[in-house]
Amino acid sequence: MSKIGFVGLGLMGSPMSRNLIKAGHEVTVWNRTAARMDEVVAAGATSAGSAKDAAKGNDVTVTMVGDSADVEQVVLDQDGVIEGAHRGSVVIDMSTISPSVTRAVAGKLREKGVEMLDAPVSGGVIGAAGGTLSIMIGGDRSVFERCTPILEAMGTRITYCGEIGMGQVTKLANQIIGTGTIAAVCEGLLYAARAGGDPDAIIGALTGGAANSWMLENLGPKIHDRDFAPGFMVDLAQKDIRLVLESAEEMDLPLVLIPIVNQMFRSAQRMGMGREGTQAYVKVLERLADFEIDGS
Question: Which terminal residue of the chain has fewer beta carbons within 10 Å of its beta carbon, N or C?
Answer without folding.
Answer: C
